[in-house]
Amino acid sequence: MLLAAAVLLLGACGDRRLSMPHRPAVAWNAASSPRLPVRIAPDVVVRRAQFGILKTTPGGDDRFVPAQELPAEDGQVFGWVLEVETTRPSLHWQEHLRLPRAPVDWGDAASDPDVLISSDGKTVVAQGEDLVEDRELSRFYWSLASGDPAGDYELDLAVEGKPVAHFTFRVPAPVQEKAVLAGNGLRPRGGRARGAPAPLAAARGTRPWR
Q1: pLDDT class for 60, splitting at 50, 70, 90?
Q2: Helices and strands (H, E) in the chain, number of each type
Q3: What is the CA angle 120-67-151, rounded to 5?
Q4: pTM beyond 0.85
Q5: What are the DSSP calls for 37-89, one per residue?
Q6: Distance between alpha carbon 71 and the CA centroid of its chain, in Å?
Q7: Confidence of residue 177 (pLDDT cuts 50, 70, 90)
Q8: Across the strands, what pairs with 127?
Q9: Those residues with Cβ within 8 angstroms of residue 74's Cβ, 6 or more apart along the chain or in another chain
Q10: How many C-beta atoms lie closer than 10 Å to residue 23's C-beta?
Q11: The dihedral of CA 94, 37, 196, 32: what is its sign?
Q12: How far apart, in whole angstroms, are the C-alpha atoms of residue 128 and residue 141?
């Protein structure tokens, strides 16, 4: 019942007519990952889901690397990739991120109208819509930052209002600020438009599940 209520809540958050952000009232409790593949609509099938980090190659490209433990480094980008079958050009996604403790600061996410932070600062709900490219839907919006806590994190993901993945990952130590980088708190990756995925040309070249 909690999950159903949360899906309804997130569906309301996805209404672009809402002009003011509001706080989530219900926790999204997903006990485990849904069994994939799963058909979430007559024209949408989610075949695989993977969580990981982006690493920059010597050539300057971003490469997706599956991971369950994140380097405790300021600026480390993380997110997910879905393999989908659909004729739709884009899909609406919703994610619920839970931290072991509240970060020092949520940075730019605190003012993002598509991001809703809980009153205790430990959980966040985000939503948006992105293009499906080469049968993939991806999002790499978050990065670790100074003040983010060590411990176990969880991220639940829904597409078109239906849960499709439950990711767990760990940050082994508190994140420390780099000498050449400023900024505090878990935050969207600097310089990237709201909700836009990071470049995945290199990631698509590896396709870890194929």
Answers
A1: confident
A2: 2, 11
A3: 35
A4: no
A5: SEEEETTEEEEEEEEEEEEE-TTS-EEEEE-SB---BTT-EEEEEEEEEES-S
A6: 17
A7: confident
A8: 94
A9: 144, 145, 146, 175, 176, 177, 178, 181, 183
A10: 9
A11: positive
A12: 11
| 151 has pLDDT over 90 | yes
202: tokens are 């290199």
Contacts made by residues 35-43, CB under 8 angstroms, sequence distance 24+: 36/164, 36/165, 38/162, 38/164, 40/159, 40/160, 40/162, 40/164, 41/160, 41/162, 43/86, 43/87, 43/88
Contact 107, 186 (CB under 8 A): yes
Q: Which of 36, 40, 62, 60 is nearest to 48 (CA)?
A: 36
Nearest-CA neighbor of 45 among 10, 75, 88, 9?
A: 88
For residues 89-109, one letter each, b for 16 or more C-beta atoms within 10 angstroms of the residue's C-beta and e for the rest, the string is: eebbbbbbbbbeebbbbbbeb
Distances (CA, A) of 86 to 37, 49, 143, 167: 13, 15, 29, 23
Angle at 139 between CA 90 and CA 6, to 5 degrees: 80
Question: C-alpha 65: how far from its chain's center?
Answer: 15
The yes-or-no verdict on residue 207 having pLDDT over 60 is no
Structural contact between residues 50 and 66, judged by C-beta atoms closer than 8 angstroms: yes
